[in-house]
Design a protein that fits this description.
It is a single chain. The protein is α/β, with parallel strands linked by helices and about 350 residues long. It folds into three domains: about 100 residues, Nucleotidyltransferase, domain 5; about 90 residues; about 140 residues, no CATH class. About 50% of the residues lie in helices and about 15% in strands. It contains 13 helices and nine strands. It has a five-stranded mixed β-sheet. A two-stranded antiparallel ribbon has the order 6-9. Strand 2 and strand 3 form a beta hairpin. Helix 5 crosses helix 9, helix 7 crosses helix 9 and helix 12 crosses helix 13. The chain is globular and about 80 Å long. It starts with a strand and ends in a 13-residue tail after the last helix.
Length: about 350
């Protein structure tokens, strides 16, 4: 019977450093190959028996996962932050590959989820839309900063309007500053149509997925948020319970405790009030957190969420905590509706989800 072998890959743009360990942790192979599909397939195909491979989540990880996963027994694309915490000693390409292989052999690595083929196009369109949105926002902030630097108030959106640009440019007496403003306006003029086109294509692609029609029935989850949801989560069955999705979205409450016990009459006894701090988990998908916090904030003044919030506040819950509870409620509703394929029913908002 052939024993398992464990391969760690330290992937770079041009080369990949490889270390292979056997079941006892002894080095079987250390080498460097080109970061090319043929070279990597030839490498993993040269091993007989079960081969487990690990590398960190990077720019090339999705491509590399597709290239080699059909030639090996297991591929673990690990979280680089978690792997970094587990490492010790000197850092170098060979050491990194060796430690990845050792952590994989010990079962200490946690895989990063990679989605299905059916959402690949949507993922790229969502990334394009978010990139263009960020570029538009940065350009707008730079335009306002030009005026604020010389004490000109720029409240509202009039400074961006095409019909008012000549008036705003006339207020810039310095030639160099005026030229900067003209270039920024030209940049904004080209970015805004691109963003609108990216949004249109993203929403059209999102609505090809059956879940889109169901998820858009949830108040405050419009076409854009639903598109980002589908592209990011891919399938709701990744999460067995709502608690797992809360953690993924950064809405899980974590407690840090210390000095829980004291000695009374010679015996350790748990303190009635140990030192503890509570907060939301930080290791999360910030895109998802922004979606659900935004949905709760936007829906706090509209039905059906307003009545739900008022009910929480009547029970003595602070406004900010009630809004957090509403965000968690929307997450739970989203997961349930997505799994069952049923439209949103406001009558069930106060029921257990």
């Amino acid at each position: 019977m052939k024993r398992d072998q464990y391969m760690g890959l330290d992937v770079h743009q041009a080369t990949t450093v490889v270390c292979v360990l056997n079941a006892e942790g002894k080095i079987v192979l250390e080498t460097v190959v080109a970061t090319e599909a043929r070279a990597l397939i030839r490498l993993v195909s040269s091993f007989s028996g079960p081969l487990h491979v690990s590398f960190e989540e990077t720019t090339q990880s999705a491509w590399l996962n597709e290239v080699i996963r059909s030639f090996v027994s297991e591929v673990v694309v690990c979280d680089p932050r978690r792997a970094q915490r587990l490492r010790e000693g000197s850092k170098g390409d060979k050491q990194d590959a060796r430690q990845l292989a050792e952590l994989l052999r010990q079962g200490l690595l946690r895989g990063v989820y990679h989605g299905h083929h059916r959402t690949r196009t949507l993922k790229q369109l969502v990334r394009s839309y978010q990139t263009l949105s960020g570029d538009v926002q940065r350009t707008m902030l730079r335009i306002k900063a030009l005026y604020r630097e010389i004490g000109i108030s720029t409240s509202g959106r009039g400074v961006y309007q095409l019909g008012q640009r000549d008036q705003w440019l006339a207020r810039l007496e310095e030639p160099g500053r005026r030229q900067r403003a003209q270039w920024l306006y030209a940049q904004l003029h080209h970015l805004q149509p691109l963003r609108r086109e990216a949004k249109r294509m993203m929403v059209a692609e999102s609505r090809k997925h059956p879940a889109s029609a169901v998820l858009e029935t949830i108040p405050q989850l419009g076409a854009v948020r639903v598109a980002v949801l589908i592209a990011t989560i891919d399938t709701p069955f990744r999460f067995r319970t709502r608690h797992q999705l809360w953690s993924y979205c950064g809405l899980a409450v974590v407690t840090h405790m210390s000095a829980e016990y004291e000695i009374q009459e010679g015996r350790p006894v748990r303190r009635r009030k140990p030192i503890a701090t509570r907060g939301l988990n930080r290791n999360c998908n910030h895109r998802m957190k922004e979606i659900f916090i935004g949905a709760a904030t936007g829906g706090s003044h509209r039905e059906p969420y307003r009545s739900y919030l008022e009910g929480l506040e009547k029970r003595g819950i602070r406004r900010e905590m009630a809004r957090l509870t509403l965000a968690r409620k929307i997450v739970a509703i989203t997961l349930k509706i997505w799994k069952k394929g049923e439209p949103f029913d406001p009558k069930k908002l106060n029921s257990a989800t």
